[in-house]
Amino acid sequence: MSKIYEPGDVKILRFELFNKSLNASVNPLDQLVGCDIFEDMSKPTMYATFTMNDNLGLISKFPIIGEEEIHFEFQSPGMAKPTLYKFRSFAISNIQKDANGKGSTYSIRCVSEEHLYAGSSLVKESFSDTISNIIPIIISKNLQTKKALSVDPTKGVTTIPIPKLHPLKAIDMLRQRAVSAEYAASAYVFFENQAGFNFKTIEGLIKGNRDNIGSREFNAQQNTMGSKESMAAAFRTIIKYEALVKNDSNKKAAEGVFSAITKTFDLNAKTFESKDFKLKDIFDKIQTPDKSAQIPSSDSFINQFTSSVPKQFFTLKDTTRPDNFIDMAMATRNSFVVLLNSDVTRILIHGDTGLKVGDMIKLNLPDASGTTDKKKADKMTSGNYLVVRLRHMVTASTKTKHEISLDCVRMGI
To answer: Of 155, 204, 242, 339, which sits 20 to 30 A from 187 (CA to CA)?
Structure first.
C-alpha cells in the first residue's frame, strides 16, 4: 500500500556540517529543531537559520564556531528530485543552556558561500563592454562560484572603471545602469535562488514563467472540509493571506508613475535633450503577470496627475562614446517598479521544495461577500503573481512539517 501524505509533509534527506580546517563532518539531524531558508529578489545571495537542541555538546566538541559548511537537502512528496541548499555559517546566536545543564539550544546563522568571498574580494578593473558580458566576468573572478548563472542580454556599451568595490556592490552598480535589449522597463534584479544566480529583468521573469505556471495554482481555504474537492486541493491551499500593499495612489502620483520627463545633458555638444514619458503610451508594451492587465488607476485620476508638473530625471551623455541608452529607460523603469511594488500580497502555504523566487504562481482569492456558500474568486485580487520573497519554514519535531511564506507582486487589474 502506498504511503498517504498530508499537506506540509517533507522528508529531510541530509543535514550535514563540515569543519574544513579539521576535515571532519557531523550529521546532527536528530538535534535539529527547525530551520528557516530565505530567497529574496532584493538580496544577492540566500541566507538561513538552523535552530539546534544540542544534547551532544557539538558546539564545543565538534566544534561549531561559525565557519562550517552546511548541506541541507529535503524533498516534498511527489517531487521528482530533492532540493539541496549549501550554506556557510557565520555566527552562532541565542545560546541558552538547559536548566539541567546537559545541553543547550542555539541558532546557526548562515549565508551562501559566495557572500563570504564577496566580503574579502575587490573588483579593480576597467570595462568597456555590454553589462551582460561584464557580469559573468565579475562573478567568475570574484565570487569563485560554480553555480549556474542566468543573464538577460543588455544593450549599449558601458565604459566604466571599478576602483576597489566589493563584487556585490559592483554588480549592483551595474544593475542600476543596465538597459535591456528586449524589455521596455529594463528593471534588472540580481539574486540567488535554488537554481543559481540570476541577473534578470523582472519582465523577462514574468514572460518566461507566465505560461508555465502549471500546478502552481493556490486557492484560499473554503468551507468544504471533508469533500473530495477539498482533499484533492489540500496541497495547494492558502493557509492565510494578507495584502501588504494595495494600490498606493499617493506614491503613484508622487513618484512619476503616470508622467515624467528625462533630461539628458550631452557633455560633448553641451546641449540638453528632453524625452516625455506617458504611462498610457507604453503600458501595453510592458510584460505584466496577467496579459490582459490594465492600469490600476482611473482615467480621471491619471489625467489629473499627468497634466500637473511631472517627475523629472536627469542623466549625462557623451556622444564621443558608444550610447548606453540609459536615458531611454529611466522613466519607464521607475514607473514599472513603483507599480509592481504597489500590489504586494503575502501568503502562507504548505511546503513545496520546488518553489523558488522568480516563479510565477496563480492565486484564487475569494470575494468579500458575507455568504457562507463557496465563494467565487475576486477578480480584483485573483490572478497571476510573481514570487519576490520566499521563506521555507521547516519544523523538525515529532513529525517534520514544512510551510512557506511567499511575498508576491502583480501589476494592473
So the answer is: 242
Residues 35 and 59 in one domain: yes
Burial class (CB in 10 A: 0-12, 13-18, 19+), 38: middle
Report the C-alpha gap between 226 and 381 in whole angstroms: 27
Phi, psi of 394 (to 5 degrees): -110, 125
Cis ω on the peptide bond leading into residue 63 (within 30° of 0)?
Answer: yes
Boundary (domain end) residue, out of 277, 302, 331: 331
Amino acid at 93: S
CATH code assigned at 136? 3.55.50.20
> What is the spatial distance between Cα 111 and Cα 157, in angstroms, rounded to a whole number?
33
For residue 57, is it left (φ>0), alpha (ψ between -120 and 50) or beta? Answer: left
Closest CA to 54 of 79, 75, 36, 31: 31
Domain ranges, residue 273: 257-331
The answer, yes or no, to whether residue 286 has pLDDT greater than 70, is yes
**Measured distance CA(110)–CA(87) in Å, rounded:** 6
Maximum distance among all Cα pairs of the chain, rounded to whole angstroms: 80
Cell of 6: 498530508
- Tell me if 2 is assigned to some domain: no
105 sits in which H/E element: strand 104-111
User: Is residue 95 domain-shared with residue 122, that is, in the same domain?
Assistant: no
Q: What amino acid occupies position 271?
A: T
**What are the tens digits of pLDDT across the range 174-198?**
999 999 999 999 999 999 999 999 9
- 104-162 pLDDT per residue, tens: 999 999 999 999 989 889 999 999 999 999 999 999 999 989 999 999 999 999 999 99
Q: Which residues pair with 384 in a beta bridge?
A: 362
CA distance 402 to 393: 6
Amino acid letter, residue 61: K
The count of domains in the chain is 4
Name, in order, each residue with C-beta under 8 angstroms of 92's C-beta and a sequence gap of 6 or more. 59, 64, 65, 66, 106, 107, 108, 109
Grid coordinates in use for 50? 538552523
- Rounded Cα distance between 331 and 262, Å, is 7
Which H/E stretch holds residue 334? helix 326-340
Q: In 156-248, where does DSSP find H-type helix?
A: 167-177, 202-210, 228-233
First to last CA, the chain: 47
